[in-house]
């Protein structure tokens, strides 16, 4: 069986290693350059590869093709594969049949990384032999090749879910859905929503779907679609006989006649959206029968995710917060919503068709000045120019942070929450967040 892998990054090389181990004839093809460390792994394992091209005669003879999530369906080589009826799948689809481990799959437009990390933290703290993968960390396929874990917590992007056929997680979570990546979905929101719900399409009556019952897109989907999975909703406003909710500043979770409660003030994560992430993760912990004391301890000591509402430093009583991972408006909405002090907001980058008006009421209430950090800031200036007292444009992080310091007084906060992708001025959102942290340390 010939397995061709498009993309020589983490998921591609991980799939190559698993494929080789399972007896496939493996070939890796990357249209760009393959990083040195991945090349070494391929060479050591005797796996053939090419870079900076896709040689059709070496690809179109595949029995199956694993495509890295970053490669769009409309790329010429993918179109040719599909015309020939050659299955093009994601790493998750390829790898899952080779493990008997229990799989927890987490998707959503925002909150999925935090929910994935928190779920992994809860299960690991309870002594479970659990792996972390998917969209973060080490490749899922690679971990299966090493055969180490009894269960996996996987962060799954819509792109990964687009490439599944039979994959099903035992427990699935949809954290929320808001418009994102629409350029990959013919600019149709409903295509993106359907893509997220692929996480539950193969689930049976023995499986679970945990979801945000306050989310409009999710609730609308349920009006016209069904899933066989047992439903476990969570909400900030509704109360359930089976599900998770907040009542009298307590998080309450009821699953199969069992109850769990915890004061929200003892949960390390702050902000309403993080209460939702905590409810989702705790629902998994309850389904996996983890002791209440362990859950409480884990929720109170969780450190959070780097670049997501990460408190960097307090300087002259001004708190600097790194939320570089906020690459869309919905993520920035959560960030602004959690601010309790006058805020200087650093925003901007590559816009994915943002509607900034959704942030208007929060900006009026909380933001004293806006610093635009991007190549093209026109849209942000048009929307908020008359709303805040001060609007400044900069083109590098050092200037952004120095300007923010000038505009603050004691008791204020400086929030980097760009609502945009980072590729105009930075390598990626991590690079942007790290530059912010360094600039703050240099003040």
Automatic annotation (TrEMBL):
| Record's function text | Cell wall formation. Catalyzes the addition of glutamate to the nucleotide precursor UDP-N-acetylmuramoyl-L-alanine (UMA).
HAMAP family (UniProt xref)? MurD
Record's keyword annotation contains Cell membrane: no
Where do the Mur ligase central domain residues begin and end?
106-284
This protein's species is Flavobacterium sandaracinum
Keyword terms: ATP-binding, Cell cycle, Cell division, Cell shape, Cell wall biogenesis/degradation, Cytoplasm, Ligase, Nucleotide-binding, Peptidoglycan synthesis
- Gene3D superfamilies registered for this protein in UniProt: Mur ligase, C-terminal domain (3.90.190.20), Mur-like, catalytic domain (3.40.1190.10), NAD(P)-binding Rossmann-like Domain (3.40.50.720)
- Does the UniProt entry include the keyword Ribonucleoprotein? no
Q: Which EC class heads this enzyme's classification?
A: ligase
Q: What is this protein called?
A: UDP-N-acetylmuramoylalanine--D-glutamate ligase
Which reaction equations make up its catalytic activity?
Answer: UDP-N-acetyl-alpha-D-muramoyl-L-alanine + D-glutamate + ATP = UDP-N-acetyl-alpha-D-muramoyl-L-alanyl-D-glutamate + ADP + phosphate + H(+)
Where is it located? Cytoplasm
Its pathway? Answer: Cell wall biogenesis; peptidoglycan biosynthesis
The segment(s) forming the Mur ligase C-terminal domain are: 307-420
Its GO CC terms are: cytoplasm
One GO BP annotation here? regulation of cell shape
> Do you know which InterPro entries this protein is assigned to?
Mur-like_cat_sf, Mur_ligase_C, Mur_ligase_C_dom_sf, Mur_ligase_cen, MurD
Q: Which family does it belong to?
A: Belongs to the MurCDEF family.
EC numbers on record: 6.3.2.9
Identify the residues that bind ATP: 108-114
Q: What GO molecular functions are on record for this protein?
A: ATP binding; UDP-N-acetylmuramoylalanine-D-glutamate ligase activity
Q: Which PANTHER family does the record cross-reference, listed alphabetically?
A: UDP-N-ACETYLMURAMOYLALANINE--D-GLUTAMATE LIGASE
């Amino acid at each position: 069986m010939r397995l061709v892998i498009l993309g020589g990054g983490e998921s591609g090389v991980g799939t190559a290693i698993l494929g080789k181990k399972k007896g496939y004839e493996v070939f890796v093809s990357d249209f760009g350059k393959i990083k040195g460390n991945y090349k070494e792994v391929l060479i050591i394992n005797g796996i053939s590869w090419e870079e900076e091209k896709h040689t059709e005669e070496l690809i179109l003879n595949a029995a199956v093709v694993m495509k890295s999530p970053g490669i769009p369906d409309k790329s010429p080589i993918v179109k040719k594969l599909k015309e020939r009826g050659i299955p093009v799948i994601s790493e998750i689809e390829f790898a899952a049949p080779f493990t008997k481990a229990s799989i927890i799959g987490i998707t959503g437009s925002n909150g999925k990384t935090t929910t994935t990390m928190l779920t992994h933290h809860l299960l690991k703290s309870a002594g479970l032999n659990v792996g972390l993968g998917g969209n973060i960390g080490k490749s899922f396929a690679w971990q299966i090749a090493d055969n180490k874990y009894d269960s996996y917590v996987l962060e799954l992007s819509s792109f990964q879910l687009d490439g599944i056929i039979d994959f099903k997680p035992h427990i699935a979570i949809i954290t929320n859905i808001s418009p994102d990546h629409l350029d990959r979905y013919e600019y149709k929101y409903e295509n993106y929503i359907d893509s997220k719900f692929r996480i539950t399409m193969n689930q049976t009556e023995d499986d679970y779907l945990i979801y945000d019952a306050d989310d409009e897109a999710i609730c609308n989907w349920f009006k016209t679609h069904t899933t066989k999975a047992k439903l476990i909703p969570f909400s900030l406003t509704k109360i359930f006989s089976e599900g998770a909710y907040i009542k009298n500043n307590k998080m309450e979770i009821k699953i199969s006649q069992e109850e769990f409660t915890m004061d929200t003030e003892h949960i390390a994560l702050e902000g309403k959206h993080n209460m939702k992430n905590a409810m989702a993760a705790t629902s998994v912990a309850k389904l996996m029968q983890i002791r209440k004391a362990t859950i409480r301890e884990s929720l109170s000591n969780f450190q959070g995710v780097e670049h997501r509402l990460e408190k960097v430093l307090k300087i002259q009583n001004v708190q600097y917060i790194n939320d570089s991972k906020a690459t869309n408006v919905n993520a920035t909405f959560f960030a602004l919503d959690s601010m309790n002090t006058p805020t200087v907001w650093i925003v901007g980058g590559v816009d994915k068709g943002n509607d900034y008006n959704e942030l208007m009421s929060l900006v009026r209430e909380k933001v004293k000045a806006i610093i635009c950090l991007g190549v093209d800031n026109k849209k942000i200036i048009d929307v908020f120019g008359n709303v805040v007292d001060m609007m400044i444009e900069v083109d590098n992080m050092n200037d952004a942070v120095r300007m923010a310091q000038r505009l603050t007084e004691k008791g204020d906060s400086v929030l980097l929450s760009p609502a945009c992708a980072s590729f105009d001025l930075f390598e990626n959102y991590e690079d942007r967040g790290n530059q912010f942290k360094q600039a703050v340390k240099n003040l």
